[in-house]
Structures are given as C-alpha cells and as structure tokens.
Amino acid sequence: MSSTASVQIRESTPADAEPFHAASYFTPAGVRSELQRAIADRAADALYAFGVWERATGHLVGRIALANVVRGAWQNATLGYFIGQRWGGRGYATEAVRQILDFAFGEGNLHRIQAAVMPRNAASVRVLEKNRFRFEGLAERYLQIDGVWEDHRVYSITAEERLPGSK
C-alpha cells in the first residue's frame, strides 16, 4: 500500500461500528452484525470486506468488498464499494479500489475481479476505468434495486492486466 495514499483499507471489526452511527442509516447494532457476518465470510473464503479509512482524520468513510468469491478454475470475485456522500469527489474510491486490487491479486490469490455499475453512475464508471477495468458489456435487468430491475455495465480486470509489463 502506498504511504502517500489519502485513504487506507483494512479489515474491520465489530468495534468499528460506532463511526457509522451518525453518518449512516445503519444502527450501530446493525453494522456490528454486518461486520461479524463479514468476519465469518472471510474465514470461509467467501467475502473479503474492508473499511475505507481517511488517513488524515482516521474517519471511517466507506466500505469495499470482494464478494461471491469462487475458487477452482475461475478464481473470481465481485467488487462492491461505497464512499459516504460527504467524502465523495476526493479520489477515495479510486484509491480504495487500487488497494483492494493489490490485495485481490496478492494475498487474495484471485485471478479475475468483476464489477457491475448502473450506466448513469458516471463517477463509479470512472473509478473502474482509472483502475484499468475493461468494459465487457451491458447486463440488462441485472439487479433489483428499490423494486426496479436495473441494467448494469459489467467491467473486469485480471491479474495479468495488473502486473507490471503486462498488456
């Protein structure tokens, strides 16, 4: 991880739930439960969730995760992330994605990471593009969000594309 990065990702614990209370719709108990579930999923090699922490203040500003981990011949995971609205536009998501890719293709021993983004979410598309994800296509009616089946643009990156000197 870069020592000049403005954020740092690290595994969260249930004790980290308190910072979410004021800035989020989650209750501390709900976040604690989510973090406990994330710890169990990590132990099962099914999900790797990290808090996104602002270096200058130590504030928890978001979350990033590699979910739906599949081993065997595929070695794939799905990327998901969010940064709290008040911290948006500072490059934190771009940096957090860079760091989780370092984890994914290093310690995580994964080969492929994919992400799906609603086409109207231009900021998130840009985050993926800055991290060298390639556009693979449009998945129509991909996820149901607030009762509506939303189309998503699907992006991916492989370990070879992250290695120095690779294509």
In order across it, which strands form the biggest sheet?
Answer: 1-2-3-4-5-7-6
Average pLDDT works out at 87
- The tally of structural domains comes to 1
The low-confidence runs, each spanning 5 or more residues with pLDDT under 50, are 18-25
What is the fold named in CATH at topology level? Aminopeptidase
Identify the CATH architecture: 3-Layer(aba) Sandwich
Structural class, by secondary structure, is: alpha+beta
Terminus-to-terminus distance: 22 Å
β content, as a range?
A: 35-45%
Shape: globular
Q: Care to count the β-strands?
A: 7
Helix content: 25-40%
Q: Could you state the order of secondary-structure elements as H and E?
A: EHHEEEHEHEEH
Task: Figure out the total of helices.
Answer: 5
CATH class: Alpha Beta
- Rg to the nearest angstrom? 16 Å
Tell me about the biggest sheet? 7 strands, mixed
The CATH homologous superfamily is termed Gcn5-related N-acetyltransferase (GNAT)
